[in-house]
Task: inverse folding
DNA sequence: TTTTTTAATGTGAGTACTTACTTACTATTA
DNA sequence: TAATAGTAAGTAAGTACTCACATTAAAAAA
C-alpha cells in the first residue's frame, strides 16, 4: 500500500461519509487526495472498487471489536462487554462508522451476517445464564445495540452514560 | 394536486427508494412518470423540492401511525401497540419506509424529533406502570423498535412473529 | 558496484455521456 | 382573459473512465 494509495482511501472515506457515495465524484476524491484522477482507477479499478476497499476495512474493524467479546468465557462479561461496545467507540472514528451505517442503506448488500459473531456469542451467554429465550434475547440485544450505535454516531442521544448504566442494570450487571 | 404531479411523486418515491436519491436523475423520474422533465421543476422548484415533498409525506404517515398510540389511556395498551407497530406495516409499504430510512442517512437533517411523540407516550405509560426508569425505558424501546422496523423492511429478520411475542412477553403482555 | 532491463507508479488531457436546470413556447382550465 | 399546466429543445458543468506517455523503484546482468 503506497502513500498515495492511502491518501486516496482516506479522502474517499472522508468524502463518502460527508456527502455520500453517489454524491462524491472521483475527481473530488482525487483533488482532495492531491493525486491525478487516473491513479484511482489504476489502483482500485473503478469507483465501486474504491468503495469495496473501504467496506472491507469496516468489516475487519468490526471483527476486531467483536474478537474481545467472542473470546470471553464468563457469560456475564460477554453481556457487559457487548453493552459497552457502542459506548467505547472514540469520537474520532464516528465519521468512519457513520459511513458504514450510511452504506448499509445506500448500496444493496446483505449486511446481516456482519453482526452474527456478536449474536452467537450473546446467545451462548444467555443460555449459560438460564435466560428463557436465549436466541431471541441475543438477536434483540444485537439489534438494539446497533440502533444505539447509530444514535451515538448521529449525536441524537441526549445522555449516553445514563443509557449505558440503564442497560447494564436491565441485564443485571 | 394534478394527476401528473402525483405521477411524478410516485415515480420519484419508487426510484429514490430503489436506487437512492443521488443515483436517480430527474430525467429518469420524468421518463418513469411519462412527463416532460421541465414539469418537475415547474411543480417542485428543484430536485430537492421533490425530495422534501416525499419526506413530508413520510412524517405525516408516521404521525398517523403514532396517533392511535398517543391517544390510548391504558398504559399496558400503549406498550402493546408500540411493540406491535413495526409488525403491522404492510409489505406494500416497505418501499416507502425503506426510503425514509435510507434518507435518514443520505441527507443530513435532524430526525430524532420524528419519534418523539412515541417516546413521550411510552414514558408516560412506564410511569403509570411504576417502572424504575421510565424515561430511559421509553427511549430504549423506541430505539429498539426503530431497529426492528429497519430489519423487517430489509427482510433480514428470520422470524418476525417469534420476535414480536418475545417482546410482548418481555414487557409482561 | 555500476549499468541495464523490467515493471510498477503516476500524470494530464481527452472521451462520450449524463447531470440539474432554463427558456421560449403551446395547451388547458378558471 | 389571465393564470396555470405542460412541452421540447436547449445549456454549461459535471460524470466515470481511458490512454498515451513520464517517472520512479526494484530486479537482473555486467
Result:
Amino acid at each position: 500500500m503506497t502513500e498515495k494509495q492511502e491518501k486516496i482511501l482516506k479522502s474517499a472515506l472522508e468524502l463518502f461519509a460527508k456527502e455520500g457515495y453517489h454524491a462524491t465524484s472521483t475527481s473530488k476524491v482525487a483533488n482532495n487526495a492531491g493525486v491525478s484522477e487516473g491513479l484511482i482507477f489504476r489502483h482500485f479499478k473503478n469507483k465501486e472498487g474504491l468503495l469495496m476497499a473501504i467496506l472491507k476495512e469496516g468489516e475487519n474493524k468490526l471483527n476486531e471489536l467483536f474478537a474481545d467479546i467472542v473470546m470471553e468465557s464468563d457469560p456475564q462479561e460477554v453481556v457487559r462487554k457487548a453493552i459497552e461496545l457502542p459506548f467505547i467507540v472514540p469520537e474520532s472514528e464516528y465519521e468512519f462508522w457513520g459511513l458504514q451505517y450510511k452504506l448499509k442503506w445506500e448500496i444493496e448488500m446483505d449486511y446481516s451476517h456482519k453482526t452474527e459473531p456478536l449474536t452467537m456469542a450473546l446467545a451462548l451467554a444467555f443460555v449459560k445464564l438460564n435466560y428463557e429465550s436465549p436466541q431471541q434475547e441475543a438477536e434483540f440485544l444485537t439489534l438494539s445495540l446497533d440502533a444505539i450505535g447509530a444514535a451515538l454516531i448521529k449525536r441524537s442521544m441526549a445522555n449516553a452514560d445514563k443509557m449505558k448504566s440503564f442497560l447494564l442494570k436491565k441485564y443485571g450487571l
In short: Residues 47-70 of chain B form the longest helix (24 residues). The radius of gyration of chain B is 19 Å. Chain B is about 75% helix and 0% strand.
